[in-house]
Specification:
Radius of gyration: 21 Å
Bound molecules: calcium ion
Distance between the termini: 43 Å
Structural class: alpha/beta
Order of helices and strands: EHEHEHEHEHEEEEHEHHEE
Shape: elongated
Strand order of the largest sheet: 2-1-3-4-5
Number of helices: 8
Low-confidence stretches: none
Helix content: 40-55%
Number of strands: 12
Length: 229
């Protein structure tokens, strides 16, 4: 049985990629290398990797875009390689979802140490994190972070809208009455009227409508309530 941890190295400079691979292999990791951004998402979806080392400047698709795309469906640890040390603080603030950043030129020893540190830190939490993702068609809710994305684009929701959407997504196609939705969304449902639910649903529907998804998935069933389908 093969129980080595697998690292995907995405780096367009062949020399850097192969030196990194050698150092990682010497520490007991298995490695795969991609030299451009094209097939990265597909490769990550295969689920065989434990961590990705991702260069930012890549042909066809850059590392930051890739990191965002990966974060929509996976919490796999990502270590970013950047050529500019002054970029790191800014990038961390922008929340691309990388676990750590290393600046070029780097020592391969340092990268291996960072990889080991990230894996120690995240191995136990990966399972819990993936359980927190709830998805329906093109909508993904990260329940732990309270983040909603539609077709990989972030949608800003209020806490009540998030809770409403979450309630519907937990049971797709099932019609929820306004009373049920109020109970789920408010600690004290006496303070709101069913009209409030209608206006939240209207806002939610507007926020979830975009050019790729013109027909809302949220349906109002006259006299009964709401469902997602
Ligand atoms: Ca590069």
């Amino acid at each position: 049985m093969n129980d080595k941890q697998q690292i995907l190295i995405v780096e367009d400079e062949p020399k850097i990629a192969s030196v990194l691979a050698e150092f990682l292999q010497a520490e007991g990791f298995q490695t795969s290398i991609l030299h451009d951004g094209l097939d990265v998402v597909e490769k990550v979806k295969s689920g065989q990797f434990d961590l990705i080392i991702l260069d930012i400047m890549l042909p066809h698709k850059d590392g930051l875009t890739l990191c965002k795309e990966i974060r929509v469906f996976s919490q796999i640890p990502v270590l970013m390689l950047t050529a500019r040390v002054d970029e790191i603080d800014r990038l961390m603030g922008l929340g691309f979802g990388a676990d750590d950043y290393v600046c070029k030129p780097f020592s391969s020893r340092e990268v291996v140490a960072r990889v080991q540190a990230i894996l120690r830190r995240t191995t136990n939490s990966i399972q819990a994190a993936s359980d927190d993702l709830l998805s329906y068609k093109h909508i993904v809710l990260d329940q732990a972070r309270h983040v909603c994305t539609l077709n990989s684009k972030r949608v800003e929701l209020t806490p009540v809208e998030f809770k409403l959407l979450q309630t519907l997504m937990l049971k797709p196609s099932i019609v929820h009455s306004r009373d049920t939705l109020m109970d789920k969304c408010y600690d004290d449902s006496r303070i709101v009227s069913t009209r409030t639910i209608d206006s939240h649903m209207k806002n939610l529907r507007n926020k979830l409508a975009d050019e790729d998804e013109p027909n809302s998935l949220l349906h109002s069933i006259y006299g009964v309530g709401y469902k997602i389908e």
